[in-house]
Every structure is written in structure tokens, then in C-alpha cells.
């Protein structure tokens, strides 16, 4: 079977740019579509191509006509969902290919894709289930009852059997098909900082239930580790790329496994710079583990600080405290590990809260602060809690840089402060 896996183009829309000419809110890097590389790695016996429309925005029509796929699979976050529907309609207008939608938005809000232009929706971690779907379609078997997969029923309701995610869903024997994006490799960079960067997954899922986050929905709340040998092989497969981003929600979710991985990297003689996600409380509880990772090449950690008061953290169902965050920052500074800090700016921010955030980040010398606007993503608890507040329902704007509920400050002033902080924080950023 000929399978085309598509990463949607940059398609999110920006209120600050469209309404106020504020253009300082920019993504600072373009990463590879690891989710599609992972899917492709478990499709042995099929002719698979990956089309990254973020790197090749004009390539869709040529891919459809030149490759003539039997199946087209799309991944999408929320702000890409409308674009995926439009692309799926193009597929159906030009061919008889089967169309499958997956990714974050499909996992959180699968009903959105219950449309005539889409045949199946894959929810959650799809490496194993997507291969099962392909096998069923190729054998002309009923694929609508596979766990984690729903056959669309426009005008009706999606019916699917929940999938109990476990180690088998990692499909360890099928490594990511990095070769399928080789022609795009030079575009996967931290351009502002001059780094080429490659993506590797060592774990999937998250057991925590922050009200704004979609990660737990990918594995039903399970936390699943790849074998150390698998991770080492994936790192080696990226060749001479100097910076490896472990794209796990929390690389240190299982500290014992993280220790084994560090030892594996050291024993293998791998010399890379690693960027990983970690929780503040893990840093505080396991500083020796972080020191061992520093020996293995740890360069930067990404921490979801989110907010700067305990009350604000509690309102997001975010476990932890400002005191623990501060202790983690001090430990990392002492180690010489740079900190990428994720912060969430609520539409309810006033001038005082913007000022407080600026002071917090500056005083604590966060190396690369990243600001997102608190967004009620469909399918998450925050969306239900804010349902009567939402005034903007067009998913194109759900980029995490737009306020989809009214802002406490005047809208223009809100974006001026948000963009101003973003620009200031990035001007001296380092990793």
C-alpha cells in the first residue's frame, strides 16, 4: 500500500498581527514531524512517504498527483484542525484514497473529524494502532472496531473501543523513519541560536492532569518508557546532529529509567547536547541524577513553571509550588544547566501580573522563557470550565498565542504587554 503521511503547513492565525500589527510573537524553531516518523517506522512492507508542509508548503498537490497514495494520514494540533479538513477535502476530490486523522486534536476532540472527507480517526498513541488499521484496510477487513480507532459516521456519533495503552503500543522494533525527512533536515533548526536539532522520544504520556494540557489523553494517563537500547539506537540514527531534543512530556518521569538511560549514553560514548523536559520537584528530589545527566551531555531542561504564585498554580490543577520551583532553579544554576521556562499568561492578567511575571523571570535568570496564552483547548477540563466565556471558536486561532476569551486589560494593551515580554525574553535567550 502507498501511504502518504502529512504534517500540516504553518496555518495558525494571529490576533495581534491581524488587528494591531504586532509581529514579535514568533516560533523560535521548526522541529521535525517525529509523530509521523514514528508511525512510518511501524509500516514495514508498505511504500511510505512523509510530506512536511511546514518545510515544503507548496508540495501537497504534487505529492497527491505524483505519488498517488492509497491512504493519506494527517496529524494535527488544534490550530491545524481546520486546515487538515480542507486538505482532506482536496484528497477526496482528486482521488479515492482513504483519509485518516490523528494527533493531539484527534485525541482530545475526535468528534471534530467526524466528517465525510475523513474515513477514520486514530486517538492516542498511534504507532501500533495505525499499523493495525492499515493492515485491516489492506486485507479488506472491518477496521471500525479496532481499539483506539473510529470509523467516521457523519451526522452520527463516533463509536470506538478505548485502547488500553501499554508497552506493545511502543512497537520497539520499528525505529523512526528519519530517512523520510532527509530532504528537510537542514530546516529543522533553532535558527535564532544557530543549532541543528533532532527529535527522539524516550517516553510517552503523563500521569498528571493539568486542566489546560492534552498530553495525558495520548496514553490514557499511562507513562511508557522506551527501552534504553531503543533510545540509543534512535540517537545514533540521527548521525552528526549535535543537539538532541528528547520530546517526552517528562524524560525523568521514571527516575530509575532516566538513570539507566544516562548510563547507556555514557557507555555508548555518545557525545551530544541534550534538551529534556523535567519537573521542578524531580530536580529537587534527584539532584545527583541531574549531575549524572550533565556528564552525559545535558545542556538544557524545559520546565513547565506555568505560573508564579501557588494560588495560580492550583487554579490550573498544577501540582507543585513556587518554593519548589525556586529551589529547582537554584540547583540548575549551580550545575550550569540552562533553563527553558514555560509560562502561561492568563487573559485575566492585569498590568500588575505582567509586571510580576517580568520580575520573576528576570530575577531568577531564566535562560529562555517561553510564554503561552492560557487557552481552553477542546476536550480538556479548562474548555468545559470556560465554556460560557469563550467568544472565539475558530480553531485557527487556538495557537496558544491568542486569547479566545475576553481579556481583563484592553485587548490591544494585553497583546502589547504579551508581545513586549516575549521580545524582551528572547533577545538574550540562550541554550
How would you sum up this structure in a few lines?
With 431 residues, the chain is an alpha/beta fold. The protein has helices spanning 15-20, 34-40, 60-67, 81-94, 104-108, 127-138, 228-237, 255-267, 280-285, 287-296, 310-315, 322-335, 351-363, 381-385, 411-427, and strands at residues 2-7, 47-52, 71-75, 98-102, 120-122, 149-151, 189-190, 195-200, 203-204, 224-225, 243-246, 273-277, 298-306, 338-345, 368-373.
Keywords summarizing the entry:
431 residues, alpha/beta, Rossmann fold, TIM Barrel, seven-stranded mixed beta sheet, six-stranded mixed beta sheet, 34% helix, 17% strand
Provide structural commentary.
This protein has 431 residues and is of the alpha/beta class. The chain has 2 domains: 2-167, Rossmann fold (3-Layer(aba) Sandwich), CATH 3.40.50; 188-427, Aldolase class I (TIM Barrel), CATH 3.20.20.70. Helix content is 34%, strand content 17%. The strands form 3 sheets. It has a 7-stranded mixed beta sheet with strand order 7-8-11-12-13-14-15. α2 crosses α6 (127-138), α7 (228-237) packs across α8 (255-267) and α8 packs parallel to α10. The longest helix is centred in the C-terminal third of the chain and has 17 residues, at 411-427. The radius of gyration is 21 Å and the shape is globular. The chain starts with a strand and ends with a helix. The model has no long low-confidence stretch (mean pLDDT 93).
